[in-house]
Amino acid sequence: xxxxxxxxxxxxxxxxxxxxxxxxxxxxxxxxxxxxxxxxxxxxxxxxxxxxxxxxxxxxxxxxxxxxxxxxxxxxxxxxxxxxxxxxxxxxxxxxxxxxxxxxxxxxxxxxxxxxxxxxxxxxxxxxxxxxxxxxxxxxxxxxxxxxxxxxxxxxxxxxxxxxxxxxxxxxxxxxxxxxxxxxxxxxxxxxxxxxxxxxxxxxxxxxxxxxxxxxxxxxxxxxxxxxxxxxx
Amino acid sequence: xxxxxxxxxxxxxxxxxxxxxxxxxxxxxxxxxxxxxxxxxxxxxxxxxxxxxxxxxxxxxxxxxxxxxxxxxxxxxxxxxxxxxxxxxxxxxxxxxxxxxxxxxxxxxxxxxxxxxxxxxxxxxxxxxxxxxxxxxxxxxxxxxxxxxxxxxxxxxxxxxxxxxxxxxxxxxxxxxxxxxxxxxxxxxxxxxxxxxxxxxxxxxxxxxxxxxxxxxxxxxxxxxxxxxxxxxxxxxxxxxxxxxxxxxxxxxxxxxxxxxxxxxxxxxxxxxxxxxxxxxxxxxxxxxxxxxxxxxxxxxxxxxxxxxxxxxxxxxxxxxxxxxxxxxxxxxxxxxxxxxxxxxxxxxxxxxxxxxxxxxxxxxxxxxxxxxxxxxxxxxxxxxxxxxxxxxxx
Lengths: 233, 395
Known about the structure:
The complex is a heterodimer of chains A (233) and B (395). Chain A is an alpha+beta fold and 233 residues long. Chain A has helices at residues 3-6, 13-34, 38-45, 47-56, 72-76, 94-102, 192-202, 206-222; strands at 82-90, 114-119, 124-130, 136-147, 151-156, 164-173, 178-187. In chain B, strand 1 and strand 2 form a beta hairpin. Chains A and B meet through helix 8 of A and strand 4 and helix 3 of B.
């Protein structure tokens, strides 16, 4: 048996939050029902959204069933789409940080939802992500802007399953002693089956997902490895 | 291999678990020759630290022999005899470079958990809950040590395991507590808690130039140790009013620095201690900071309160007003182990201190569950327990 099989412990953030919602929802319900009064009824009723969130993993919301166009221009311009912005600071020289990211094949080493990225010669690339059920989603993207040691920006190509665009910028900070990396990621909100699948890739809290990706990026470049603990249970 | 596992509040068992394997390039596997139960393990035993899982291997004070190294680990060799620091640090992030080793950015795989609770995460720790990384601990026959090219300290064969083992935590922890007091010649330092960390804080305060050290506890054997080994003046808080006594002993001035070597499960005889006990037993409070409140009240104006004792949550009735009014400096945190270990090893080699003086109990691994209770209840004058995983029962 190899190490991967024995040691494969991962705690899900959203699981913890679901339990928290379920727990506090149940508590409210209990408190509300046990007080046979109007206030009690109101308290009990207030548990509904928490219970819904606890059970389904989603906050109750009004329907969002429309289909997005697959062009990044129409789906993501202005305030449209989901925007995620996260940054991290590393004690690694700027050119090394930029150089590592620019090789898009490196991205799956710290972006856990990506299976592989292959670059083509014409500034386009093919992306494959694999979700929890082992289903793969693939899309093509192109680099639309690139300034050495400063910026890389990309967007998905029309015809893709995924409508996404993003940029990562690099800056030397702390009088040149550290490097800051800032990611701005956009994607069209979930719609239909594929949409739900995409949403599961980015997680229910996309900014947390990106923050964890960036943390692993920093660990890989600074420490040379991503820390892991063996599970014992 | 056999390992001491946490099974729930007040439940510790020795179990057979998979042997550790190399997971990362900078790892090493250590065959544990000697390990210890730490006072902070009792916070886990008593169920005060969240995110412990059933079956977690305990222990963060251990040493042993290197039996395997990862491919990037060029500093250690199979056969090296090493003491392992309880904090795990990468050595390359901002915090490690600033000598703030216990705040390493890159060693906690579950940093997000600590971030939810504290805003930012400290380093990973061995055997100390999933919030601190979920790393299996060293109360076992073998242990995997991450970033082993930077942490473990090689020790000379001229020193015994018992002389160097406490470099893994409590000696540096007591030393940093004293260093945080910024002791000047002529200073008086008061130390709450005469457990192992308190004993090392007393010794370290003298090593760093304190003129007087006053030790506070209620157990005769611990006060005796502070007096005979540490050369401290002692106060039994069950017999005297500590604030009054300290005021008299310092001619109305108050101690220049106060060390809280007790932490979140403080016992006390005053009204606030009973209040803490009632609130924590009803899950309405997380910590019982009685000793810390007293240290803040006792400290002279402009003095320093140094806190090596562990705290985990949101403190109730914390006298920040007193700390503010007197312009106190508060210093605290997990020990920056890697910064202190080499220099403290030198002090041991020079004969300035022999840390083995605190050991009262020696056991084999299988005796651990019973000994957790003995140590927690301070039966049998228990101050410090060391374990030999290589033997089932110590003779």
